[in-house]
Amino acid sequence: LGATVTEQKDNVKGWDGNQLKMRNIIASYKPETGKRVLICAHWDSRPWADNDPDPKNHHTPIDGADDGASGVGIMVELARQFQQNMPEIGVDLICFDMEDYGTPDWYEGQHDDNTWCLGSQYWARTPHVSGYNARFGILLDMVGNRNSSFYQEYFSVRNAKSIVKKVWNKAHEMGMGGRFPKRDGGAITDDHIPVSEIAKIPCIDIIPMYPDCKESSFGPTWHTLGDNISNIDPATLGMVGQVLMEVIYNEH
């Protein structure tokens, strides 16, 4: 789709001390320009359905249709749009590996937030281009469920308040304010934190919140075998993608 593609491959240490083969994939448009934005998602899926209602499934890998693949799907469509009509600025689409390899719930030892987001931690410390910088980053995580509403996540507001305002205002201008409420979405460990705090690129997280869901504030399919293609809604994907398109094509 017309991008310059870079891969990062290395071994990183997992929560259990095992060495894991990491692979980040970066697709760059207009790599020669310094005026850039970064769009990212994780392309791995959870190796364990540790929030599944059936304990027998807690060691079974999930499809990750929403939790991972939905964000990547939007990025692939963005790439198709860029090939047809290049924005004025440069854009990097990054697939981070091993976001979802964090310590499983069934592990009885110590849980450490740093066991999550291994691919983005690696990239933030050793970016694909030496001295890499971007105006801002937008992370997509779980952006495909039919009932998703995207609240304003705490670390996004703390580290990139102006970008939260830019994206949510655009969603409201486009008539999508009901799905992008300007309300507190809680604090979430996700790939935007290494981008903001290690790479020093202000990055926000577009991620849903389900305040009334008894299974999880991330929704009933989160880290369960129910996170499959049957729960993905093209209209939700299209809505988030259209908001991103408006934000990207209005950068000059």
SSE blueprint and pairings:
Blueprint: E1 4-13, E2 19-29, E3 36-42, H1 65-84, E4 90-96, H2 118-125, E5 137-140, H3 154-173, H4 192-197, E6 203-206, H5 234-249
Parallel strand pairs: 3-4, 3-5, 5-6
Antiparallel strand pairs: 1-2, 2-4
Helix pairs in contact: 1-5, 3-5
**Overall 3D form:** globular
What proportion of the residues form beta strands (DSSP E)? Answer: 15-25%
Distance between the termini: 22 Å
- Low-confidence spans: pLDDT under 50, at least 5 residues? none
CA-atom Rg in angstroms: 17 Å
Q: Can you write the helix and strand succession as a string?
A: EEEHEHEHHEH
Roughly how much helix do the residues carry, as a percent range?
A: 25-40%
Q: Give the integer mean of the pLDDT values.
A: 97
Write out key terms for the chains shown:
globular, 252 residues, single chain, 6 strands, six-stranded mixed beta sheet, alpha/beta
